[in-house]
Specification:
mainly alpha, two-stranded antiparallel sheet, globular
Length: about 110
């Protein structure tokens, strides 16, 4: 199981560990689709928008243990700041590309 160590603040003193399963949860619920906009700037409003979207998802569905784990461990973590979300989004994009790169190498 791969774990990603995401820097959460500019000083580099706070980190959030994100598992591959949590990355898959982000993909499953399309949490980053349309979140960053054309500028790609991540600020407090972007983080709050993501949190509100996740709350709405949780309210509209039955128990989703994978989404609850992602919320508890990553999205609503005390260390999650806009820089952390930006770094998570970058790592997510790399993670998303990785399986496609492996498939192409095998062909």
């Amino acid at each position: 199981m791969t774990t990603f160590h995401i820097q959460a603040n500019e000083k580099g003193s706070r980190f959030i560990d994100v598992s591959e399963e949590q990355m898959a949860t982000i993909k499953k619920y399309n949490l980053f689709d349309g979140l960053l906009g054309s500028s790609g700037i991540v600020d407090e409003n972007t983080l709050e928008k993501l949190r509100l979207n996740v709350r709405a998802l949780l309210d509209s569905m039955e128990a989703a243990p994978d989404l609850l784990d992602l919320c508890r461990s990553v999205l609503f973590h005390d260390n999650m700041k806009p820089l952390g979300l930006c770094n998570l989004a970058k790592q997510y994009m790399e993670w998303k590309k990785a399986p496609a790169a492996e498939d192409n190498a095998e062909a």
